[in-house]
Specification:
Shape: globular
Number of helices: 8
Oligomer: single chain
Radius of gyration: 18 Å
Strand content: 15-25%
Structural class: alpha/beta
Helix content: 25-40%
Distance between the termini: 53 Å
Strand order of the largest sheet: 3-2-1-4-6-5-7
Length: 250
């Protein structure tokens, strides 16, 4: 193992990257994460290999031999993006977790701003959410996102322009408070607000994916997303104020 890489024994920050069949994007993205974070935080990188059938696992294993702050978790079968993010957060050792997509569209250069926004929140900020500008997706996909974000915001009143951006940072303990369901990552702002935390927003510049095609599509989650929206609305409506608890000593 390379002694020049940060140790995973006591990281303050964990970077979680969900991937499925992204072999050609592995090495470039890890190099960019290192360039953004080396010397700034003690950090670990957790790749969650969501049932890949290409060389993703082998590429990660080869780089793990050179970087002792890189970890790989593997799902035997693909469980989807939310499941992959959850697996990574549960395994994370850092108090702050940052996420980004594994296709290269999310630029790791914005990770420091997201992490710093959570740190500066001094416990009040539970989530720093990336908000994409200059998106590189097709016009149809951008239209889909505008409609979905508009409907979600009008119902949940979460004050968030773009929940689909994979670039996020949050306190691990806050994420683990969330009720888990498939699609959770798209409703984090509303659920974090439900728990009484503030949200910080960071504009990020989108870019084209390095290679390959999207593995987490729109139409396969459209109707499920509608049901999720109704469920999250119900959760918010049913939330009661958190009691102010003090321990009474004899």
């Amino acid at each position: 193992m390379s002694s020049s890489q940060p140790s995973v024994s006591q990281p303050s920050v964990s970077i979680v990257v969900p991937v499925r069949n992204e072999a050609d994007n592995i090495a470039p993205l890890i190099a960019e994460i290192g360039a953004a974070l080396d010397g700034r935080w003690a950090y670990e990188i957790i790749y969650v290999n969501d049932g890949s059938t290409d060389a993703t696992g082998e590429r990660l294993a080869a780089i793990m031999a050179q970087r002792d702050n890189l970890r790989q978790l593997r799902h035997a079968r693909s469980g989807g993006q939310s499941a992959a993010v959850r697996s990574g957060v549960r395994a994370a050792r850092g108090a702050i977790v940052a996420t980004l997509d594994g296709d290269g569209q999310n630029n790791p250069a914005f990770l420091p701003d997201l992490i710093a926004a959570v740190e500066k929140g001094a416990g009040r900020v539970g989530l720093a959410a990336g908000q994409r500008v200059g998106r590189k997706d097709t016009g149809f996909k951008k239209f889909q996102s505008r409609v979905a974000n508009g409907v979600r915001n009008s119902i949940l009143k979460d004050g968030t322009r773009d929940t689909g951006c994979g670039l996020k940072a949050f306190r691990r303990e806050v994420f683990l408070m969330m009720p888990y369901f498939d699609g959770l990552h798209r409703f984090l702002p509303a659920l974090v607000r439900r728990e009484g935390y503030d949200i910080a927003y960071v504009d990020v510049i989108d870019r084209p994916r390095h290679s390959g095609v999207s593995n987490y599509g729109f139409f396969d989650r459209l109707w499920i997303g509608i049901m999720d929206l109704a469920g999250v609305w119900w959760l918010i409506r049913r939330k009661k104020p958190t009691p102010d608890v003090t321990e009474v000593n004899a």
